[in-house]
Prior knowledge:
The protein is an alpha/beta fold and about 280 residues long. The chain has helices spanning about 10-15, 40-55, 70-75, 85-90, 115-120, 130-135, 155-165, 175-195, 215-225, 240-245, 250-255, 260-275, and strands spanning about 30, 60, 100, 105-110, 145-150, 165-170, 200-210, 230-235.
Amino acid sequence: MRTRNGWRAGYIERCTSGSEGGSRKPAVAIQQGGGFLPYKTTSTINLAYGLARAKYRVLVIDSDAQSNSTYSLLGRLDSENTLADVLFSNARLADVIVGTKQPGLYLVPSSIDMSAADLIMASAPGRELKIKRALAPVISQFDYILIDTPPNLGVLTVNAFIACTHVIIPVALTTYALIGISILERTMQELRDNLDVTLPIFGVIGTLDDHTRMSSEVLTAIREHFGKLVFDTVIPRNIKIEEAHNQIASIYDYAPTSTGAQAYAKLTEEVIKRAKR
Length: 277
Ligand SMILES: Nc1ncnc2c1ncn2[C@@H]1O[C@H](COP(=O)(O)OP(=O)(O)O)[C@@H](O)[C@H]1O
Ligand SMILES: [Mg+2]
């Protein structure tokens, strides 16, 4: 659906808020993990680096008060000019976007203040729409927008669901994977019923593969359940992935020959191919 310089109509409808018309190039806004499944931050960061290295303009929005994406990309946490200012004080999103060491990769930082979002925003009018509305003026400046989310279904996760066009679901190939998926599916159903939000799944990432029988059984189960939505690339369990976060480095720079870097590079190619459909 997408070319480097333009978008075909069907996709544009899903990628914009509807009021922007078809002339501007919108972003694919992807929410990671649906909020509950683990490995959200890791898939956000590594896809974001991969897409930026492929010369796309990428925005990561860190909507988790734990600020792991923010720390992984910047190596510091700021108390000002964060998503909290946008959500609580109506700051413009454009004013809190910061660059990273990776050309083409930008970040809306999180703040620990956002841990009180559910309380602070409880009676705010249009509280579920804050991120979507704040994004509208900048959406055309990016090819991909990846939203990293908190682990619970609070006002921030609902904001992310409403702001994005698709979800990417990382699934650890371990015992509890299928429980997480059923919770996620129930939540997506509730969003459809209560808020009229229908979110297409962009893709399902099998991760933490340790080449055991358990891994391959869970992979088979998710392929049976999600079919072609499951990416061909499976991410291995690889310590370099964790180390790269701690080094505030891209896995592609920190350990380019590692199994983790190679898998995320292949996954990035699959994401690009799928977004063009
Ligand atoms: N493929 C992997 N191999 C090894 N460790 C991983 C892998 N993916 C993620 N991790 C580690 O697992 C932990 C949880 O992942 P994270 O992405 O932070 O989850 P979430 O953001 O959903 O809480 C992190 O310490 C991360 O570095
Ligand atoms: Mg996280």
